[in-house]
Amino acid sequence: MQALIDKLGLPDDYVRALPPDTAAHLSGLPLQAPAWFYPGGGALPPQAYTRALLGDTPLQTDQPVAALRRLAERWQALDAQGRVIDEAAALVLAGGSESLALLAGIAHRGRLPLQRQRGQISQLPAALVQQQGWPVPLLPVAGAGYAIADGLGGLWCGATAQDEDLDPSLRASDHALNLAQYRSLAGMREGPALELPPQGAWAGAC
Fold it and tell me: Are 175 and 185 in contact (CB under 8 A)?
């Protein structure tokens, strides 16, 4: 790992190769393998990060866009009646596979490489973590799965992925897989299966 860093000329403040004991100390998890460490990495609440990027830019929500139109050097977003909602020089689509419907009438080079996928993550609340004696990561940790502290004494772990599956309902089997990935990532032994808490998971499909 260090040889690869040296070959690419990556600086220490970007990435480091850590032996298992150092990785375990920094992460707070009993990791059993070497790890890449990104000193500038971390985690941000998506909503807060998005608002920070927008700054003072006006934000419209709950406004369905039925179609897009390219006019001169600007993009226009249209409602179901063909009226212009807004326009700008740049357009960012963040609707997953639903974005393809908006691009259907616009010439572009080939089909965008979008694949529909479903995923589920699980939350292990502080009370459960304390009861089971599980470690909470001090830093976001990823490998075969990932784990990140929720800021409340618990953690989020995941995630599952099913191609061409758009069912957003929660699944106990996915919760069990997320928990198994977390245990493996943290070097813990297998334990008894835990029921899926009614408010302890999130699933989405796009």
Answer: no
Residue 185 domain-assigned (yes or no): yes
- Give the integer Cα–Cα distance in Å for 162 and 171: 12
Q: What secondary structure letter does DSSP report for 96?
A: G
Mean pLDDT by 10 residues, the chain (206 residues): 96 96 93 92 85 86 90 92 93 81 69 78 90 91 91 92 87 90 83 64 79
Same domain, 87 and 76: yes
What is the model's pTM? 0.77
For the chain, how long is the longest CA-to-CA vector? 62
Q: Which two tokens stand for residue 139?
A: 């830093």
Tokens 């299966």 locate to 193
Domain that holds residue 175: 116-206
Q: Cα-flanking dihedrals φ and ψ of residue 93, to 5°?
A: -100, 125
Question: HSE-up of 41 (CA within 13 Å, CB side)?
Answer: 16
